[in-house]
Amino acid sequence: MNAEDNRKEPTEPITVTSFTVLGSHLFWVVLGPLVLLLLLWGTTASESGWVAALDIAFFVVVASMIFGRWLDQRSGQGTNSAGEQSTWRDFRRYAWSLPIVAASAWIVANLLGNHVLDGG
Fold first, then answer.
1. φ, ψ dihedrals at 117, nearest 5°
2. Using one digit for the tens of pLDDT, what is the confidence trace for 4-25?
3. What is the value of pTM for the model shown?
4. Which residue of 60, 70, 86, 110 is 20 to 30 Å from 96, comparing CA positions?
5. Cα–Cα distance measured from residue 70 to residue 92, given in angstroms and rounded to the nearest whole number
6. Could you give the CA distance from residue 111 to residue 120 in angstroms, rounded to a whole number?
């Protein structure tokens, strides 16, 4: 068996037939990460402690991104980063890794904002 035997057969592009599916896909791929970055920036710039409105909003957006990915996957029209149809395994990987990465970034932002950048 050589490398050519391991290639996947090309598939037809997935057609999105619902505005809800398109919106959920755009949210978890583009808008959600942008909002998370803005919230992390706000958390770093403020000295508001560990549980503030920005922190709660951050985790609400993380949960909303997972829900958006779930809606996208459930529709049968979801795609992965390579543009191929996503699987439930892709969804589970995302649902486990996003909270871990997001919580790590949130901790770093709070440490920077509350302890490093305030001079204390």
1. -80, -15
2. 444 455 566 677 778 888 899 8
3. 0.82
4. 110
5. 9
6. 11
